[in-house]
Design a protein that fits this description.
0% strand, globular, 65% helix, Glycerol uptake facilitator protein, mainly alpha, 248 residues, 10 helices
């Protein structure tokens, strides 16, 4: 499979299954209504597992701009490939959110709370404190990227400037370990911001929330949107810089 197509499909699967479990738990009159935080964190971990299994061989299963940017900083991914990966990931996130909406459309209509509807698309803080919310996203993503880099070890392209020869990303540590890693981050660090730890997992669905004809929806909270985008990018860069320094 083409690497960019793999990133698009993998991110779409990730958001479809990840936001799908949120919709199943939060929206009214679903079979999973009221399933709670454990169901959501487990669902997201399994979503990562499925997406990685499907795309690891083709693209390295980045599925996350923080991963792609972090790998560029760590010297393990070609900068020339970055724009294509980021575009594919964003479009995949938007597609996944659209599919969740289409599957649960009747339940969106049956749900009165507009905040719950927004939560099935994007993250929001439990307590709104933007500097601390940003810090929490940095920490959560730092754990993700540093763990991925540490588990894989140095893995540089076989030829200068050619990253196609070595597939690096979430898939490089295996689908089960990365699923458990995301599960751990969600359980331990997800209580403050909902652990976006992935800019397109939040931005793509937030765009779709703004565009879709959802019954009685609220605004898309663009005042918070920078936190789950910039926080994970900063956390990924910090993890990559520390990893490079520690590996010298």
């Amino acid at each position: 499979m083409n690497a960019y197509l793999a990133e698009y499909l993998g991110t779409a699967l990730l958001v479809l299954l990840g936001n799908g479990v949120v919709a199943n738990v939060l929206l009214d009159r679903t079979h999973g209504h009221g399933g709670g935080l454990i169901a959501i964190t487990a669902g997201w971990a399994f979503a990562v597992f499925v997406a990685v299994v499907c795309t690891a061989e083709s693209s390295g299963a980045h599925l996350n701009p923080a991963v792609s940017i972090g790998l560029v900083v760590a010297g393990q991914f070609a900068l020339t490939k970055l724009p294509g990966y980021l575009a594919a990931q964003l479009l995949g996130g938007m597609t996944g959110a659209l599919l969740v909406y289409l599957c649960y459309r009747d339940h969106y209509s049956a749900t009165a709370d507009s905040r719950l509807k927004l939560a099935t698309f994007c993250t929001s803080p439990a307590i709104r404190n933007l500097p601390r919310n940003f810090f929490c996203e940095v920490v959560g993503t730092f754990v993700l990227i540093f763990a991925v880099l540490s588990m894989t070890g140095p893995s540089f392209p076989a030829e200068a400037g050619d990253a196609s020869l070595v597939k690096v990303g979430l898939g490089s540590i295996g689908a089960v370990p990365v699923g458990l890693l995301v599960f751990s981050i969600g359980l331990s660090l997800g209580g403050t911001t909902g652990y976006a730890i992935n800019p397109v997992r939040d931005l793509g669905p937030r765009i779709m929330h703004a565009l879709l004809p959802i019954a009685d929806k609220r605004d898309s909270d663009w005042g918070y949107a920078a936190v789950p985008v910039l926080g994970p990018i900063a956390g990924g860069i910090a993890a990559a810089v520390l990893f490079r320094f520690a590996s010298q």
